[in-house]
Amino acid sequence: MTPDEATRIARPWALASLPVSGGEVGLYEFDLGYVAWAKVPPSDPARPPEVIGAPLAVVDKETGELSTWPSLSPQDVAGLYELEMAARRRFPDEVRRVLTEAGWRSDRNVGAWVASWLRDVYAADPETGQRLPIFPAARVLLEEFGGLAFRQLKKPGVGTSGYDVQFWPLEGRVRTDLFTDFGADLGVPVFPVAWYEDGPSDLAIAADGRVFLLHEAGEFLVGATPDEAIVNLVRGERFPPVDEYGELVEG
Question: What is the pTM of this model?
Fold first, then answer.
């Protein structure tokens, strides 16, 4: 996609959104495409500007698709577009929609909130801090998804979907014995990351990145990686049972 091609694609949009532009556009090139804006003729300095807060557009370099974006600087729009494309590559459309509606975005980081919450938890019960320390995989997951709440998508014919999921620190249960005992059987530490309505039960991440559901009916593998677990959670997939060592149960 060349600048001339991007300009031709953007001209009808510019004319439709701001007829005063006459279809003239400005371009800002970045790795994934071109940010375009409608050029407005200079106004009389003695009069208020005719256009305030006009939207911008992005023309994708690979597909030529044009999308509209808020009235920000071209550099900021390019940054938002890169985040959006990264999210599309990372999560399927329906998963990304649920997460976005819950308040997630690719650059989300609530690390300060998580750290403050942990200090309160450990201060209230120093034994928990000793027996259940947070480790990098848990911290990374909570810094991105902590505080999000959503209802799973309901899969037809699947009775184990459609439940509420609430990531700590929005709601959490410090069941120290449960998590330390499971981690001892697993052979790696685990840390709770979310409350699950069915049961209710708890989601915990292991230090190796696997995510498990600790339910009164047993233990289940939600995902072999955090992102896989997020997708399976949102979609309401069935979670396969595991034994006390975290190995999948045959059949």
Answer: 0.79
